[in-house]
Amino acid sequence: MKKYVGYLRYDTQKEVDILNDLYRNELRLYKNFFQPVIKLISKERIGGKIHRRYDFTKTPYQRVMESKEVSEEKKQELKKIYQSLNPAQLKRAIDRKLDLLYKAYQNKNKSEKVNINKKLKPFSLTFDLAKPKTIHLPS
């Protein structure tokens, strides 16, 4: 979770409340329903090299829906939750709460600047992949 909130020290009650709210609500939903994960299927050592095999990328929600161990009733509940969610809206809510968290940190330290190396903005690979890359050739 440090990937989302950075490495600052959040020790006041206000900061803890914001973090708990973020983890219990938007971040949990965003990660479980929309963030794909690659699962390790097998790992075997051949000589001095380790060969790993991975499953296809799927979200935790997709894995639960494919599971035979989860009841149909529970799957229907999860499906209703999934259909009610909007990933862009969740992302905006996460960013708003992170901004509240950084403002609470700044107020605690009475400063306007937060060390940019410690403050992390969540990133999304989909946006990075969608940007066209320009190549400059020497003349």
Can you characterise this structure?
- The chain is mainly alpha-helical.
- The protein has one domain (2-124).
- 53% of the residues lie in helices and 9% in strands.
- The protein contains seven helices and two strands; from the N terminus they run αααββαααα.
- It has a two-stranded antiparallel ribbon.
- Helix 2 runs parallel beside helix 3 (26-34) and helix 2 (13-24) runs antiparallel to helix 6 (87-109).
- It is extended and about 55 Å long.
- Residues 125-129 have low confidence and may be disordered.
Any idea how many domains?
1
Rounded Rg: 20 Å
Uncertain residue ranges: 125-129
Order of helices and strands: HHHEEHHHH
Largest sheet: 2 strands, antiparallel
Structural class: mainly alpha
Distance between the termini: 46 Å
